Amino acid sequence: MPSCRGGKAGGGGRRRGRSPAGLRWLWLLLCLARRPLPGQAGAPSELRVRVRLPDGQVTEESLQADSGSDCVSLELRKGDGTLVTLVADFRQEVKIFRALILGELERGQSQFQALCFVTRLHRNEIIPSESMAKLRQKNPRTVRQAEEVRALEHLSMDVAVNFSKGAQLSSHIHNVCSEAKEAIYTREEDVKFWLEKGVDGSMFEVLPQSADLPDLQRCRLCADRWKPCICSYALSIEWYPCMLKYCKSRDAAGKVSSYKCGIRSCQKGYSFDYYVPQKQLCLWDEET
Ligand SMILES: *[C@@H]1O[C@H](CO)[C@@H](O)[C@H](O)[C@H]1NC(C)=O
């Protein structure tokens, strides 16, 4: 599975919880977490949690964090076999969604289709990698459901990203999107943000829009398999730590201070619209 390890391996010198606050938070993080697993400083940490899907099925979700390269990755398999991966690259302010969609062999589709959607990572969308690396759970058999359901986000992916140049945006694109070389999408508004940060613009190519092609339709309304259209793909991150919880403590002198003592979990869906040169690249998007 694609972990968070980008090109650069995590730096050698690991910070340790030297301050009392740091130590305490190591111990108290989460009703998920009591004690850090021994050893493994520098290795990305992995947490496996069981989560309930909307159809009632239970799946295992893997959460990895690498505070050295300041990144987090989540992966889960949906009931239909689709593998959904999210990599959050905090350093580059980039998040990458990847879907590996199983093809339907009887319809002459190859084994799977890979899609990559790259968009801006905002602050506070997900807890920091350092905190994620410290998450532990008491009971791995517990089936989790997110405490908060966040609104479905519609994203219009109007720009293609050149795979061979994508590493300049995030080193993780190379690992995560290698099966989706021809299907890496982003948005003009995200591109603007990255260009202001000094990212090289030559990796981006604006895709045809409805304004350029007046008869560009949604694929689900298009009858001709060979015509270009706007495809829609939706995915959901079923369970992720979206916020830190703080608790208060009072010292001997009565002074109140707050410390990190757990996480809040969220579920969030995303719906991506993007251009395909032929409707047959978008066969799941059919009117039923
Ligand atoms: C992506 O960039 C490479 C290197 O500059 C170039 O050779 C290739 O043609 C580009 N691919 C597309 C699809 O534009």
Automatic annotation (TrEMBL):
Pfam families: OAF_C (PF22873), OAF_N (PF14941). The keyword Signal applies. Keywords: Signal. The keyword Repeat does not apply. Residues 45-194 form the Out at first protein BRICHOS-like domain. Residues 218-286 form the Out at first C-terminal domain. Residues 1-41 form the signal peptide. PANTHER family: OUT AT FIRST (PTHR13423), OUT AT FIRST PROTEIN HOMOLOG (PTHR13423:SF2). Belongs to the OAF family. This is Out at first protein homolog. It comes from Pogona vitticeps (central bearded dragon).
